[in-house]
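Onboarding guide, step 5: your first structure request.
Type a short instruction followed by the sequence, for example:

Predict the 3D structure of this protein.
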Amino acid sequence: MPTVPSTTVCSTLGCKNTKARFSSLCTEHGGRDTFDHKRYNNTKGRKEAGSKYNSSQWRSFRQIQLSKHPICASCATEAVITPACHIDHVFPWSHLGEYAFIRNVFQSLCASCHTHKTQLEAKGIYRRYGTPNSDYTLKDYQMVVNHSYKVLNDN
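The system replies with structure tokens like these:
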């Protein structure tokens, strides 16, 4: 029988506040005590964004990415082997525009690390995991993406 999660503390690193009712975060870090129907209903924008992830092009790309990089990039930096299940846009396309959905830098992450990275993005930090990790801002998008495509074309 399903049980209610027992974690009652905010999931933000170092925060000891009690989490909000409808979130893993406390209200100080963006959690919600009331259900926001406007945000979670199937709005036109949400359906359009979801349709990108249901396209055959994305499903094919996702399969290739997970085949080439099956291990979570974040966990690997700490010498932990965790299977990846998410393909992460290093620069969230929703912050840049639709052109950044495919023209981006991608990394394979496990669900836990993907959630943590999404929290960093809310603070304006766009992390690419590696040795060492690289933190970017939106201003770095063009430089990083152009460099990544140049490296791919040179090989």
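Each response can be followed by summary notes, for example: The chain has two domains: 7-41, 44-154.
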